[in-house]
Amino acid sequence: MTCVVCRAAVTEPVFANAWEKTRKLSACCSAACAQTFDPDQHWIPSTRPAAIDHMEETRLSRVGGERLRKGDRPGVVVRDLLLGGVSPSAVRKLLTATKLGSESTDIADMVPIRQQGWLGRLIYGAARAAGPDERTPEHVDDARRDLDRWTAHFARP
Ligand SMILES: [Zn+2]
Question: Are residues 130 and 104 both part of a single domain?
């Protein structure tokens, strides 16, 4: 496990707040690191999320596609998918589809995920207000950079 702030090895995980303590994704190595923790900047978790099976991945990707279609910011959707265990290659495919405007519109896929507790809330992003369409090419490029950061981070030994 590595510290999400300074990337040092974590022996005794410290979390920034009660929410992070529940999520257990963003461990810090010390109280000092926990104090400088910024969820926007330190969003790559301390350990790679557990792998999910192909069916689950397909389903989560469809939900992500639906969120993108509804105008959620691509960077936020990409982070949620990666944290949910969707593989970078599947996320990349979705981003490419978004740029082409051909992402899934199958709303039926979204129903089960709403009933899945914390993971559903994580993916569905319950607290996020629907704003204007954020699928501008710039936002898609930002999301792609986030994806590249993730891939580079977990490619390291
Ligand atoms: Zn640290």
Answer: yes
CA of 58 to the centre of ligand 1 (A): 35
4 & 78 share domain = no
Number of domains in the chain: 2
Q: Per residue in 93-118, pLDDT tens?
A: 988 887 665 544 444 444 344 444 55
User: Which of 12, 30, 47 represents a domain boundary (last residue)?
Assistant: 47
Q: Which residue range forms the structural domain that includes residue 37? A: 1-47
Q: How far is the CA of 13 from the centre of ligand 1 (A)?
A: 10
Record the pTM: 0.73
Tens digit of each residue's pLDDT (9 = 90 or more) over 2-60: 999 999 999 999 999 999 999 899 999 999 999 999 988 999 999 999 889 999 999 99
The per-residue b/e assignment along 78-114, b for 16 or more CB within 10 angstroms, e otherwise, is: bbbbbbbbbbbebbbebbebbbeeebbeeeebbeebe
Residue with more model confidence, 122 or 108: 122
For residue 66, give Cα distances in angstroms to 53, 70, 109.
20, 6, 9
Task: Mark whether 18 and 85 lie in a shared domain.
Answer: no
The alpha carbon of 3 and the centre of ligand 1 are apart by a number of angstroms equal to 5
